[in-house]
Amino acid sequence: MASPRTGRPGRRPGPTETRERILACARRLFAEKGYDGASLRGIAREAEVDPALVHHFFGGKQGVFVAAMEFPIDPAVIVSRVAEVGSRDELGVALARTFLDVWEDPASRTPLLAVLRSAMTNERVATMMRQFVQATLLTPATETFRIPPIRIEAAIGQLIGVAMLRYVLGVEPIASATREELVELLAPTLQRHFDEV
């Protein structure tokens, strides 16, 4: 049987090979066009598959991006976890704890560090990440919690600053503080952004 991509005899690509081809094409398109500019249909066309197959493997553009960039956690999961709190008064604690849970896990910390460092040194990656974070974290958080975008961004900015000091630069004593010490320190400041609306 001829291969559909090469016309040469051989077996048909299996699910793993097809999935990897989709991811390779997605990486290329995200790099060329950014998160906003790349579409699910464009990725499918580039990979020579039906858009429904891309949707089947990844659930949508956000899922493709998370897999293609080897992002360790989908931002939608973070919003969902924080949204599980019982009241708005607990958002600061929930956000601090969820953020630190992700960073404290070595399996997610390593790829997060790679993404953070890449975004700091490569304008194309920075643009792509900015579009992705805006679409998948900041906008949904604003809509879910009904908090003005600038307040959500200020809170996230503080957490990214902590990540830089603790995990990238290793500045003491924040680098060796316990997770609970940091939650106790960060939560009231984060909560102020959410209360003063």
TrEMBL record:
GO terms for molecular function: DNA-binding transcription factor activity; transcription cis-regulatory region binding. InterPro entries: Homeodomain-like_sf (IPR009057), HTH-type_TetR-like_transc_reg (IPR050109), HTH_TetR (IPR001647), Tet_transcr_reg_TetR-rel_C_sf (IPR036271), TetR_C_16 (IPR041678). The keyword Zinc-finger does not apply. Residues 16-76 form the HTH tetR-type domain. PROSITE patterns: HTH_TETR_2. Residues 39-58 bind DNA. Transmembrane segments: none annotated. Keywords: DNA-binding. This is TetR family transcriptional regulator. It comes from Thermomonospora umbrina. The lineage of its organism: Bacteria, Bacillati, Actinomycetota, Actinomycetes, Streptosporangiales.
